[in-house]
Amino acid sequence: MTVSSKPTLSRRQLITRSAALAAAPALVSPWALAQDKFPNRPITLITPWPTGGSSDAVMRAFGESAARALGGTVIIENKPGAGGTLGAAAMVNAKPDGYTLTQLPLGIYRIPHMQKTSFDPVKDITHIVCLTGYTFGLAARPDAPYKTLKEMVAYAKANPGKVNYGHTGTGTTPHLAIEEFASKAGIVLQDIPYKGSAEILQAILGGHIPLMSGTTEFAPHVVAGKLNLLATLGSKRNKAFPDVPTVKESGWDTVTESPFGIGGPKNMDPALVKVLHDAFRRTLEDQRVIDTLDKFYMPAIYMSTAEYTAYADRTFAAEKATIDRLKAAGKI
To answer: Can you give the CATH number for the domain in which 227 is found?
Structure first.
């Protein structure tokens, strides 16, 4: 009877195999090695706007959908104020473990050029994925003494300093976009800052302000005839309001568009970023998310992690140029 045995390894082969086994963990990220399952506790997703507005509703839809994709729980935490920067400010000192995330509105790239902030939007944030964006517009009460943007400009010129409008905070996109437009139109508008879209809607529907600059939270009220949309601020007309011209079409070269997505603290493990990216990317295929975006007239604007990171770099530099120009003009 023959007895088989395993071949004996030479000393050199043993050393080579031991080195290969020792090096193997380096091929797998430390995060992946340390995690049995992610998430194993609730993820906090900060929404830097009040409850009740379009941003809050959309972020809750994204959070619920991502939770299903991850097999975990996502808790929305509202931190309104400071032009939408409180989410980034609260997040940057968190552990880069994926359990603290925030929405990244356009203002986080602008406000650091206007005042001291506790974060650098490029160096201190991991840009995970871009998902959608706002459509901006200027809406008026139906009883306002103007029905079109050109009529509003004529009225403002005849009544300098007497036309006011609400927006989501000093330095936010709805504020600066209208200031840039007003400068080009040669008019002076009095701005009134609010903490979020829900407060603005209460003010304009209650008759406290005649105009509002904001995102498409005004859309249902336009459809219902409670507000009159004078113009949108994008490069193209909004598909939901094809008869409403853009500001640029109306004669003033102002275009404002605002993609936004999800970010985490700096130094997140690439493997973890991919897990979160993939989960939030899947939300754009969720019919419940699609319906919510359609409800608030927000288009899907997807950017991968690399694309979103490059966008942040470009936008931070472009916003500095805009702020410098407006400061020189005495508008901020």
So the answer is: 3.40.190.10
- For residue 164, the number of C-alpha atoms closer than 13 Å in the C-beta half-sphere is 12
Return the pLDDT at 295: 87
- Rounded (5°) CA angle 325-327-331: 105
Structural domain for 108, as ranges: 40-133+258-328
pLDDT of residue 30: 60
Tell whether 15 is covered by a domain. Answer: no
0.85 surpassed by pTM: no
Q: What is the pLDDT of residues 92-103, one digit of tens each?
A: 999 999 999 999
Closest CA to 171 of 115, 234, 235: 115
Whether residue 197 lies inside any domain: the answer is: yes
Q: Are 138 and 233 in contact (CB under 8 A)?
A: yes
Residues in the chain: 332
Sheet with 190-193, edge to edge strand ranges: 190-193, 164-167, 211-214, 137-140, 228-232
Whether residue 188 sits in one domain with residue 101: no
Say which range, 13-27, 31-45, 163-177, 220-234, has the weakest mean pLDDT.
13-27
